[in-house]
Specification:
- This protein is mainly alpha-helical.
- The chain has one domain (44-153).
- The protein contains 7 helices and no strands.
- The longest helix is centred in the last third of the chain and has 27 residues, at 127-153.
- 41% of the residues are buried.
């Protein structure tokens, strides 16, 4: 069970890259978002919303167990939060490569600067929920800004 938790929490060991593991996890999330929303599967949003909610709760549990395994709160090896953050960033946004790249940059920016309430969550909330929720807040900001940018620069989409 320990190996499975580490595999999931690190997004297939992407969290072990020596430089910028959060960025590596975000790239995994970018690929997953493309597959879900526009590439391989094109799953309707009516299915992705409840599936995301279930996955998010499961990821909170996985993150909490991974913190215990790594013996470190919000270890940099835990990148499942970045994976689901990228999926949330791209939810109901176009998934062509230009939008994916802009969404990726926006998510990384908001994940790093942690605007309210992400910073508050990051500082005060512990456990798996704390690991996951600050990235969800960053993803919501990134999603909204991506929608605005898309309307301004890609009005035909």
């Amino acid at each position: 069970m320990r190996r499975l938790i580490v595999l999931l929490a690190t997004a297939g060991y992407a969290g072990f890259v020596p430089v910028a593991p959060g960025t590596a996890g975000s790239i995994v999330g970018l690929i997953l978002a493309w597959a879900i929303f526009g590439g391989i599967w094109q799953i309707p949003w009516q299915i992705t919303v409840p599936a995301f909610a279930v996955l998010f709760v499961f990821a909170c549990w996985v993150s909490g167990r991974a913190e215990e395994i790594f013996n470190q709160p919000d270890s940099s090896h835990i990148v499942i939060d970045e994976v689901l953050g990228m999926v949330a960033t791209m939810f109901r946004n176009p998934v062509d490569w230009s939008h994916l790249v802009v969404g990726f940059v926006l998510f990384r920016l908001f994940d790093i600067i942690k605007p309210f309430p992400a910073g508050l969550i990051d500082r005060r909330m512990r456990g798996g929920a704390g690991v996951m929720l600050d990235d969800l807040a960053a993803a919501i900001y990134a999603n909204i800004v991506l929608r605005i940018v898309a309307r301004l620069f890609w009005p035909a989409v």
